[in-house]
Structure formats: structure tokens, C-alpha cells
Amino acid sequence: MTSRGPLTGIHVVDFTHVLAGPACAYYLSLLGADVIKVERAGRGDAMRHRGGTDRTAMAEGMSTAYRTQAAGKRSIALDLESDTGREVMDRLLARADVLVENHRPQTMAALGLDDAAIAERYPRLLHCAMTGYGRGGPREDAAAYDVNIQAVCGIMTMTGTAESGPTRTGAPIMDYGTALAAGFAITSALWQREKTGRGGLVDVSMLETAFTLMSAPIVDYLATGTAPKPRGNSANSRSPGAGTFPCREGSLSLGVNEEAQFRALATTIGREAWLTDERFADRNARRDHAGELEADLADLLLMRTAGEWERDLVAAGVPAAQMRSLPDALALDDVAARAFFQAPAGADQDKSARLPTLPFRLNGARSAPPSGPAPRLGEHTRVILEELGYSAEQASEIAGEASNHS
Question: What is the four-CA torsion angle of 395, 94, 374, 406, rounded to 10 degrees?
Fold first, then answer.
């Protein structure tokens, strides 16, 4: 556990699986919290065995999808259907500051860990419950993954084109968006507990997180009744000259939304005549003649490569970016300068071991690397049991029972 983060001294019980819950707990660990991952004896988190393209790692229970948000944690393997397993969980929660879980309420209730029971037995505990639809609605017990939330929230009908039909985003943004929302909620709740002395339920909804990520088109629909349609690579601003255009080599994304940006664009690409053309004199005129403006722009951009245009336009203050593949994006100088990807402490410090950290800095300090690599299933069971007050003999016995569980 790192001693540098603002959450140093905070104890987190990570009773999560798949992506959103584990990612939330991972972010807390990067901020200094001591995170203990409680896993089912036998196979552990299902993501150990699926996700990514490394089949050997999946077979070993250490898939890349699991390792992405497991570093820096300690793993304890428990059979929570046994009396011993429940007793250990009780000791863990009794000393914890935060419980992060993303199970259905009925699953938690079956384990004797429903919301009311947790609140009564652990009054200072912050119970972060991450579910597809949140508490209190008709779907509160419905299972949901990222792909389900993308389908139900409406974002897929806004992605792609009329020809392609609804399209899922290429990355599980609802999972990671929910993880960030939950981290924000937990840190807010910790501050509230400082003032009240009491914990409580932190109810995080994946659907509401999705709606948060879609705020602008949702508010426009509520105000105007105009449902959003798929716009392909066009910008949400609907500004003429904002969108993605093919170049002699590659494609270029432009975000020309302000007058100064339009003037800089026209000057840099050699179209100063636009600035005195009444068709393009102001935003409204450009909107009325968007087709003519964009046709001229598209023809011009084909004369040079996307990389050349990006270099000159960015220098002129125009929001512009060459469309890149993931490998090309990771090779950007900006990535190296910020040190966003870091290998866990104690791991081989090569490229293959690097993991995402936190997308922000506190007082200029970059995020600390994960305090250790992703744990093997139950790797820290005995140590944690002894920390909870069990004797070495008891810890060995309980750990042995868990390792024999299937």
C-alpha cells in the first residue's frame, strides 16, 4: 500500500467482479487506500478467466482484463456461503471504511449483506453499491453489463450512421464511466462522514452514469422534443467545418466552433477569401451554406496528409487532431510526458507491464504507480486473516479450506 496518496489509512473491501466495480476499487488504491479484494474460493473473479487476447493468461486466471484493474490490491479467497467465510467477512467489514460491491441486491441479501443489515451492523461503513439501474426502480435486481447499458440508454442509436445502424462504442465506456462516478461518490461520502461520523449507502447507477455522459443531447431533447440521430463523425456542435475529413493520407478531426478558430483555419489553409465572402461571414451564414463550405474544405484537405495539417493547424490555434490507431495514440509524446501508464511497483518495468493510472494530478504530482502487481487468487489470505486476529494455525486452516473449495 502506498503511503503517498490522500486516501492513505482508508481500508476498502472490494467485493466486486467484472470491470466497473474492480476499476473503482483500483482507483481508490492508486490514491493510497488499502484495498482487499474478496473473491469466491475456487475460481475468483470471473474476469480472471476471460477478456483480452492472451489465452495463456486467461487459463492461469490472470487475464489482461483482470490485471487492468487488480494491481495494488490484496486478494483473500472466501466461501461466503459457509459460517467461517461469513465470520471473516464480518471482521473485514467491521474494520473497513468502504465496501465496494456490484452485485444484485438479491445476491447481497442471500449472503446476509442487504442494505439494512449493513447499515445496522457497520454504522461508520460507506457501502458503495454499483448496479445497472440503481435502487428503488423496477429493474434494481436486473443483471447488466456495459453492452446492456449502452443498448438501453440510447447512446447506440446516436452512434454510427443511418446506413450502419446502431453501433456500440469500441471500449466499455459505461463500465469505466461508472467506476469514475463511484470513486467521485465515495470520496464525497468520506468527506461527509468526517462531518457526521456516520457512513451509509452510496447508490451508483450505470444507467444514470450513461445519462450523465449523454447530458447535452438529453437536455436538448427534453427542451425541444428533437430526438438525436446518428451523425457519423460529425461534431456534436453542428458547426460547419467541425467534423472528420479525409486527407491525402489519413483523416483529420476539426473542432472549429468559435469565430477566432474559423479565422485561423481560413488563414492557415489559404482560404482568406472566406473571411470576406458573405456566405461565410458569420456563424448563421456558414450554417445556411454549410454544404458549400465543407465541400471546399474537403477538397482542400485532400492536398496534404493529416499529419501535416495537424501540425500547422494546431500551431495556429485551431482544434485539430489526426485520427490515430490505438498503437499510434500510445506513442504520442504527450503520453510519455505525463507518465499516465506506469508499471506496478515490484514488476518488470517494461512496456508490457504498464497500466493506466489516474487521469488527474494533485498539486502537480503524477499518480503513484500501483503498489504491486495484480494478486493471484487468495494470495494474501493467510496474512489478512492474521491481521483480523486469527492465529497462524487458524489462518492456515481457513486458507486451506478455501483453496480446496470448488
Answer: 50
What pTM did the predictor assign? 0.93
Alpha carbon distances (Å) from 341 to 65, 268, 317, 329? 16, 35, 28, 13
Neighbours of 67 (CB within 10 A): 22
Query: Do residues 12 and 28 lie in contact, with contact meaning Cβ atoms separated by under 8 Å?
Result: yes
* Residue 317 · residue 269 · CB < 8 Å: no
Q: Report d(CA 403, CA 398) in Å as an integer.
A: 9
Beta carbons within 10 angstroms of residue 9's beta carbon? 12
Fill in the amino acid letter for 129. A
| Local structure of 294: helix, strand or coil | helix
Place of cell 490490491: 73
pLDDT at 348 over 80: no
CA distance 30 to 204: 21
Tell me if 357 sits within 8 A of 369, measured CB to CB: yes
- CA dist 223 and 209 (Å) reads 20
Q: How many other β-carbons are positioned within 10 Å of the β-carbon of residue 175? A: 25
Q: How confident is the model at residue 386 (pLDDT cuts 50, 70, 90)?
A: very high
The single-letter code of the amino acid at 97 is D
pLDDT of residue 352: 81
With a CB cutoff of 8 Å and minimum separation 6, the contacts of 170 are: none
What would the pLDDT profile of 313-338 be if each residue is shown by its tens digit?
Answer: 999 999 999 999 999 999 999 999 99
Q: Which amino acid is at 384?
A: I
Q: Can you tell me the mean pLDDT for 363-378?
A: 92
Say what the pLDDT of residue 401 is.
Answer: 77
CA–CA dist 258, 383 (Å, integer)? 59
Question: Residue 286, Cα to own-chain centre: how many angstroms?
Answer: 37
pLDDT band at 231; cut points 50, 70, 90: confident
